[in-house]
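General statements about sequence and structure are easier to judge against a single worked case. Part of our work consisted of pairing the sequence of a single chain with a tokenised description of its backbone. The amino acid sequence and the backbone structure tokens for this protein are reproduced below.

***
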Amino acid sequence: MSKTRLALRETAAPTIALVTSLSTLVCCTLPAVLITLGMGAALSSLTSNVPQLIWLSERKPLVFGGSLILLSLAWFVRYLTRNMPCPADPALAKSCARLRRLGGWVLYIGFGVWAIGAFSAFVLPKLMV
């Protein structure tokens, strides 16, 4: 097994999950933070240059639901491959173990980012009223 295939096997699902959870921050947390900090003009400029943010913000439940599904799938893939053997080559085995740890951390960060986004998109607006 090459190092590239090994890296893809160990980190692809967590990386995809992290990217999708970051999308929740862009769609829903960034506008809330900008408004809270009094940067309405910056938000107005951002939404005029990237109008897709409005579309994403209008579909918050879909964005968060889709990202939660991808995070759950990444966790499930990681769970299924947790006991998968690493290559016999010592250098590849060391790389495999390091990539497994890295993939785990990326997945935990993804769940943390998703939780922060969900809190700021769904809970914080109800607390501020």
